[in-house]
Design goal:
Keywords: Cell membrane, Chaperone, Membrane, Transmembrane, Transmembrane helix
Main location: membrane
Subcellular location: Cell membrane; Membrane
GO molecular function, one term: protein-containing complex binding
Order of helices and strands: HHHHHHHHH
Helix content: over 70%
Radius of gyration: 29 Å
Pfam families: TPR_21 (PF09976)
């Protein structure tokens, strides 16, 4: 097929362009394809991780119900190692900590609560872990550790609970003015019809505040 002069010039121009940039365009296309496949593959991997984590978490719950502390130790360690980046990692640590506390294994409970507070991807779970850790330290009369846990960054939605716990710690260590201040700050964070507000207000009244 014959081409006129203008068409031939366009063809020659395209050939020259492809000769100069063709390899780069092909490489770019290949990189985009690989990136897309990698993205899809990563999505499938994450989906599989969450599914497998859920199954392991269900097995952990059975061990919790059975009171199998040794089994819980192993199952929790496995979940934290293999699925620690999924939401099930921190949740498993919270469950395990509760059984450890009930069995008077405070070292195990403390370790699990600390792990959950450090690795939780959900702000609410992190806050609960810190509150329980502070409560454990309070029970052990380890007041500096309890206050340190309460001083850590947390979801603002839990401010009242943190301040209430802080008041309990300060009261237990004998610092009534600090306890009163913490309770007052906690009350200020809660709506007037909150049952928690009324309960904390009772603590304040007992302190003469």
């Amino acid at each position: 097929m014959a081409f006129d002069l203008q068409e031939q010039e366009q063809i020659d121009s395209m050939k020259a362009f492809w000769h100069q940039y063709g390899k780069w365009l092909a490489a770019l296309f290949a990189a985009l394809v690989l990136a897309y496949l990698g993205y899809k593959g990563w999505g499938m991997y994450q989906k599989d991780q969450v599914r497998d984590a859920a199954q392991s978490y269900a097995e952990l719950e059975k061990k919790i119900i059975a009171g199998d502390l040794d089994g819980v130790r192993k199952a929790t360690a496995s979940i934290e190692t293999t699925y620690g980046k999924t939401p099930y990692g921190a949740r498993a640590a919270l469950l395990a900590a509760r059984l450890g506390f009930d069995r008077n294994d405070t070292a195990f409970a403390r370790a699990q609560l600390s792990w959950a507070a450090e690795h939780a991807s959900e702000p609410g779970i992190k806050a609960v872990a810190l509150l329980r850790l502070a409560g454990l330290e309070l029970d052990q009369k380890n007041f500096p550790a309890a206050l340190a846990a309460l001083a850590r960054e947390h979801d603002a939605a839990f401010d009242a609970e943190f301040l209430d716990m802080k008041g309990d710690v300060q009261l237990a260590k004998g610092d009534k003015p600090a306890a009163r201040d913490a309770y007052k700050s906690a009350v200020a964070k809660l709506p007037g019809d909150s049952p928690s507000r009324q309960f904390i207000q009772t603590k304040l009244e007992a302190l003469g505040g």
